[in-house]
Amino acid sequence: MVVCEKNVLLLLFAKRKMDRFMWTNGLLEMNETLVIQQRGVRLYDGEDKAKLDVGGVVLSTHRLLWRDQKNHECCICIPLSQVIFFEEQAAGIGKSAKIVIHLHPAPENKEPGPYQHSKYSYIKLSFKEHGQIEFYRRLTEEMTQKRWENTPVSQPIPTGTGPKAGRTRAVGIVGIERKLEEKRKETDKNISEAFEDLSKLMEKAKEMVELSRSIANKIKDKQGDITEDETIRFKSYLLSMGIANPVTRETHGSGTQYHIQLAKQLGDMLQAPLEERGGMMALTEVYCLVNRARGMELLSPEDLVNACKIFESLKLPLRLRVFDSGVMVVQLQSHSEEEMIASALDNVSDKGSLTAEEFAKLLGLSVLLAKERLLLAEKMGHLCRDDSVEGLRFYPNLF
Amino acid sequence: MHRRGVGAGAIAKKKLAEAKYKERGSVLAEDQIAQMSKQLDTFKTHLEEFASKHKQEIRKSSQFRVQFQEMCATIGVDPLASGKGFWPEMLGVGDFYYELGVQIIEVCLALKHRNGGLITLDELHHRVLKGRGKFAQDVSQDDLVRAIKKLKAMGNGFGMIPVGGTYLVQSVPAELNMDHTVVLQLAEKKGYVTVSEIRESLKWEKERACHVLDHLLKEGLAWLDSQAAGEPQYWLPALFSELLSQDVTPEEANQMTP
Questions:
Q1: Among B99, B157, B214, beta carbon nearest to A291
Q2: Taking CB atoms and an 8 Å cut-off, how many pairs form between chains A and B?
Q3: Total-model pTM
Q4: Where in chain B are the domains?
Q5: What is the ipTM of this complex?
Q6: Residue A2 pLDDT > 80, yes or no?
């Protein structure tokens, strides 16, 4: 991206920026014209707030000036010729929109300014009272027209291309601008080329979809004429393409090798975590756990669900379970339903009554799963509820 | 006589032809599956070519991702269905969304005690971006929506409710019917709602309004301010928590535009 290139270029220069500013009386010179001014602007030295308050920024044909709003004596400026490149930075939550300005290193004959040294190669203007759009537009105009080159002013304003600038001569401001412009055009071109290639790719993908539909229809009409083997192969093709199986409506049923493998992996991986959590975990928890562990080549939610669905058929000691509320959990086979209900009843009887939160704390479960267990016990008639605005509380069912 | 064409013999012939066609029919399907295998290989090559040129685009440009997803949807392809599909494997599009899914779940879980499992898409976006750090790829709201749609497969009540101009993301299986949704939309403007407001705007009876509000209270989605001037106010933390976000530092607060 352009940023990387910029940083590489700027490494060639020294990295000193706010030190480009000079004190000035703020008066415009002869031949220097005011272009636009904007109040409510705070300066940044790179990423750090400048040790100055909020002020007004002025753009002239020759310079960028900044004056403290409270103390009008405090006024600093920088010649536009020092500007290599600038860009907008959009506003965020609690953050104003900004214009980031990248500058040449300070020439040795520079007049004194508010900073002696700066470690940054850019400054920022933060527009606390907006106005950044118009300001950016005018700045772009001035940087394109470069009127300061045509109308030299009486006070000597150091430029960045003097003989003392050293290595900067090799990559002059015009050269850099051109290169950046080319890079930008190339990025745009890349994107439109990408879209074109994408359309072509999609055409081919569409053919695959149509073919698969045709095959599915044939399978539907002539049941049993395709071998088991071929069906499995067909399903794996659908999986690769991300095409929903037109017959079963699933993207892939059980029976793909991938999911069998995955189910076995999960069987191993989840034993310990499940034991730690009372034998049950919400599927979303499992998703996070497994994907965080993998780091890359992550599972899709559907992969996980489909692998869990075949635990039983593979004789693994885990089960996928869906509660009435729609919550999906993975539970250890050893934690049977009767056990869970018995434990819920025991705990509730012990304490007289329990809410889901209290039960969760007791067992070290998530509130969600604690609630599901209580609901299950209620469903089986062992608990009854007291539902009020203070919450849902469960009591042993004495009926 | 020519009428012989419609005799028993003709019928037998017809049956034989039908049987042959049936046989051919099954062979055709087999052929097609073999054909599909070949076409799949060709497609894979095209996809590899595309990936070598444009893989960056998917990761960097949310605009490109939107376009890509919409095209896939149009032709009936779900590039995110399985991590084992071509699309994720070659374009790396899967990991982006699956990881986003993890982040979304974690944010929702972390805030559930505060907002009951309901959060605005804006706040979710803000917090996910924060969690990703300065140098991570950009994530758009469209990306979030697609990731959430995928999460639905895992039960647990992930859903999106339209309010105002945006969405509320639900991450708990609380049952929310039309009545609840309408009240949420009403509350969106100020972050809270009162019984009178509901009766005025929606023309409901008091019982209906109270029933809905009680349900929201029970589910932890609303908090009651019984000491408010006038009548009790029902506040929805999902809607006002962004304004009162405790993560804004005093420094940042000074920076905020007037």
A1: B99
A2: 219
A3: 0.58
A4: 174-247
A5: 0.72
A6: no
